[in-house]
Amino acid sequence: MSSAPRDELVAQLEPLVRETVHQEGFELEELDIRQAGRRRLVRVVVDSDDGIGLDEIAKVSRSVSATLDANDAILASAYTLEVTSPGIDRPLTHPRHWRRNRLRLVKVRPLEGAEYIGRVGPADEHETGGVVLLVNDELRTVAYREMAKAIVEVEFRQPPAEELIKLDRCQGTDGSKEESK
């Protein structure tokens, strides 16, 4: 069984899988290929601004499987396909992650200073931008590049109405008013 290096396989398959996932109306968050015994494990993580349900995961799985089968010379071995959505504990690493988690609590570990918890407000769409966070009842604009790590905090109660109102009224990082959905 010939075995191309893992990074090479990902580089060859990622554009094909990304296009397939995009055609189904979702975004490819991650493609990982690992050896698992005699087979390869192909792990595909997909998401969208509106989330993704089990029926949609099954549909994407069938489409990705067809794409992999049509390009079986690249994998050159048997594989197991796992299609999933990101978990709640996934780090927020792209602007779209911040937009999808608007009004949720996040724990932020900055590059400098102490860790803090804030509620997500308007988020810039550019990697060079940032996000407005409500921290200790104060609005704070934080650049993405200033954060070492940020993850969503699980809440077991409804957010306080006054926090939601404050964030709903605040300006985006570019000074524009953010539209509520």
UniProtKB/TrEMBL annotation:
List where the protein spans the membrane: none
User: Which GO CC terms are listed, alphabetically?
Assistant: cytosol
Coiled coil region boundaries: none
Localization recorded for this chain is:
Cytoplasm
Might you name a Gene Ontology BP term for this protein? ribosomal small subunit assembly
* Keywords in alphabetical order: Cytoplasm, Ribosome biogenesis
**Pfam families attached to this UniProt entry:** RimP_N (PF02576)
Q: Where is the Ribosome maturation factor RimP N-terminal domain?
A: 16-89
InterPro entries on file: Ribosome_maturation_RimP (IPR003728), RimP_C (IPR028998), RimP_N (IPR028989), RimP_N_sf (IPR035956)
Q: What is its main location?
A: cytoplasm
**HAMAP family annotated for this entry?**
RimP
Q: Which PANTHER family match?
A: RIBOSOME MATURATION FACTOR RIMP
Role, per record = Required for maturation of 30S ribosomal subunits.
Q: What is this protein called?
A: Ribosome maturation factor RimP
Q: Which organism is it from?
A: Crossiella cryophila
The primary gene name is rimP
